[in-house]
Design goal:
single chain; two-stranded antiparallel sheet; alpha/beta; 38% helix
C-alpha cells in the first residue's frame, strides 16, 4: 500500500480527507455542493469498503435525499451562514450500536441483526439538527465488547494503512472509514478505549468526553458505569466542533450532567502558551513497544518546546484499577444482557470471545463489584488531586502499533503480552475515573503504521484538553499523510 501526502493530493484526495471546517467553507462558497460531496463519499464507499469492511449498512438513498435538502437550504441562504447548522451538507457515519430510527442497529451482533429502532439516539437527533448527512452505520466488535473489530458475524474490519492488521476497536469501522477517506467524521462509543484505540491505530483524532458530558440515551449499553459517546475525526478542531454539538444535559439520560457546555471551538482560538503535563511513569510509560516509545517521547519533547512543563505524578492505586475495572465491566455487561433478554437466552448466537466474557460476568461476586466501586472513588480522587498541579496527563494511547488480524498476544520488550491487556491498560483508567481523554496522531513506525498520543484532562475541562491537543497537532503535519488504497 502506498501513501499520499498533501503535496501530491488531487481534488479527489482533497475532498476525501478534508475537515469539517474545510468542507464547510467550500459548501458555503458553493465550490462543492452537498449532493456532489455525498456522491463522492458514496462512490468511495462502493469502491473501497469491500477491502476494508468498515460499513455494516450504507444509507445511500437517505443520504442523497438529505443532501438535496441541504443543497436547497444553502441556495436559499445565498452564501450566508446560520447559527445552529454547522454540519449542513457534511457526510458522517455512526457506530452501529447507536440507535437510528428506521435503520437497523445491529451492535455488530447476530442477536440484533434485525433490530430497527423506533426512535433516534439523542446524539443522532442533535446531529440531524446541525444538518449532518448520514452515510451509514459502521462495523464494530460484537456488542462493542472487544478491542479488535474482528467481528465473526459480519467479518473483520481492516486497517487502511495495512489491510492485514486490525484498526483497533470497538469503533474500528468508524476509524477505518475516516482514515480511508470514506467519511468526514463519525460518532463512536468508548467503554475501555473504544474511541481512542482505533483513533491511534488508524492515525486520526478520537475524543472520549467526561462521563456524563454527552448523552448515552439510545446507545446499546455495555458497562453503564464506563460508557461514553464521542467523536472520531480528522482534526482536533473537528472534534471540538462535534463535541459542542453533542454535549449537554439530556432528560432521557439520568447520567448526563447539568454542567454548562462551553464553546469548545471558541476555546481553540485562544492561544495557549504555558501548560503543565503530568507523567505517571511507573504505569503509562513502563512497558512499550520501542517505536511507540520513541514517537511518544518525541511528542512530549515537542510539547515542551511549545510551552509544556512536564513533571512526574503519583497515582498510587492506578495499577489496582485493572482488576477492579474488569470486575465492574464483566458484572454490568452480564446484568445488562440478562435484563435485555439477550443472554443466556441467545448464548449460542454470541461469538466465543464475547460469550466467554458473559459467562465470566456471572462469577463476579458482589463484594468484588463493591470493592471495585470503592477503588473507583479513590482513584478518581487521586486523579483530581494530580490535576491541582497539572493541566493534563500525557501517555501513549496504545503500547503497540496495530497488530495483525487474529493475533491474541503481542511481543513487548521480548515478553508475550495478551493483546487485550496491552491495549486496555492504557485506556481504561480514564473510563474508570470518568475523566476526558483524547488521542492525537504523533507519528508512524518504520513500516508506516500510525502511533497515537493520549492526553487525559480534568473533569468537564475538555476545553483545556483540546487546546493542548491542538498545540501538538500544529507541531507536525501528520494529518497530511493518508493511506492510499489500490
Amino acid at each position: 500500500m502506498t501513501r499520499v501526502s498533501r503535496g501530491t493530493m488531487t481534488r479527489e484526495d482533497s475532498l476525501s480527507f478534508a475537515t469539517i471546517e474545510e468542507l464547510g467553507a467550500l459548501l458555503v462558497k458553493r465550490k462543492v455542493s452537498p449532493v456532489e460531496l455525498t456522491k463522492h463519499f458514496l462512490r468511495r464507499i462502493e469502491k473501497y469498503n469491500p477491502q476494508l469492511n468498515a460499513f455494516l449498512t450504507v444509507t445511500a438513498e437517505d443520504a442523497l435525499a438529505a443532501a438535496r435538502r441541504a443543497e436547497k437550504e444553502l441556495i436559499h441562504r445565498r452564501g450566508s451562514s446560520r447559527p445552529g447548522r454547522p454540519l449542513l451538507g457534511i457526510p458522517i457515519t455512526l457506530k452501529d450500536n447507536i440507535w437510528t430510527r428506521g435503520i437497523r442497529t445491529t451492535a455488530g451482533s447476530k442477536v440484533l441483526r434485525d433490530f430497527v429502532p423506533s426512535e433516534d439516539a439523542t446524539v443522532v437527533r442533535k446531529l440531524a439538527r446541525a444538518g449532518a448527512i448520514l452515510l451509514g452505520k459502521t462495523n464494530l466488535h460484537e456488542f462493542a465488547y472487544g478491542i479488535t473489530t474482528n467481528n465473526v458475524h459480519y467479518g473483520a474490519t481492516h486497517n487502511p494503512w495495512a489491510l492485514e492488521r486490525i484498526p483497533g476497536g470497538s469503533s474500528g469501522g468508524s476509524a477505518a472509514a475516516i482514515a480511508a477517506g470514506l467519511t468526514v467524521a463519525s460518532i463512536g462509543t468508548d467503554t475501555g478505549g473504544s474511541i481512542r484505540i482505533p483513533a491511534a491505530m488508524c492515525g486520526i483524532v478520537g475524543l472520549k468526553p467526561t462521563f456524563g458530558r454527552v448523552s448515552v440515551f439510545g446507545t446499546i449499553p455495555l458497562a453503564p458505569s464506563f460508557d461514553h459517546v464521542g467523536p472520531l475525526a480528522h482534526s482536533v478542531t473537528d472534534a471540538a466542533t462535534l463535541l459542542g454539538l453533542l454535549a449537554g444535559r439530556d432528560p432521557l439520560d439520568p447520567t448526563s450532567s447539568v454542567r454548562r457546555v462551553e464553546d469548545y471551538s471558541a476555546a481553540l482560538r485562544k492561544p495557549l502558551r504555558k501548560f503543565r503535563l503530568g507523567r505517571a511513569g511507573d504505569y503509562f510509560w513502563k512497558k512499550l513497544d520501542g517505536e511507540v516509545r520513541h514517537a511518544t517521547e518525541a511528542a512530549v519533547r515537542d510539547l515542551e518546546k511549545h510551552g509544556a512543563t512536564v513533571r512526574e505524578i503519583s497515582l498510587p492505586h492506578l495499577s489496582d484499577s485493572v482488576e477492579a475495572a474488569t470486575n465492574i465491566s464483566l458484572a454490568e455487561t452480564r446484568y445488562g444482557h440478562e435484563v435485555a433478554g439477550y443472554f443466556p437466552a441467545h448464548a449460542d448466537e454470541y461469538s466465543d470471545d464475547v460469550r466467554g466474557r458473559m459467562e465470566a460476568g456471572e462469577k463476579v461476586l458482589a463484594t468484588q463489584y463493591l470493592a471495585g466501586v470503592d477503588l473507583q472513588k479513590r482513584l478518581r480522587a487521586e486523579f483530581d488531586a494530580a490535576f491541582q498541579d497539572v493541566d493534563a496527563i500525557v501517555a501513549p494511547t496504545a503500547t503497540i502499533p496495530a497488530p495483525p488480524i487474529g493475533a491474541d498476544h503481542v511481543e513487548i520488550g521480548g515478553e508475550q503480552v495478551p493483546l487485550r491487556a496491552a491495549l486496555l491498560g492504557m485506556n481504561r483508567p480514564a473510563n474508570f475515573t470518568g475523566h476526558p481523554a483524547i488521542s492525537v496522531p504523533c507519528g508512524f513506525t518504520r513500516g508506516g503504521l500510525p502511533i497515537g498520543l493520549q492526553l487525559i484532562g480534568r473533569s468537564f475541562d475538555e476545553s483545556t484538553l483540546l487546546r493542548i491537543a491542538l498545540v501538538y497537532e500544529r507541531t507536525h503535519n501528520w494529518r497530511d499523510r493518508h493511506p492510499k488504497l489500490d
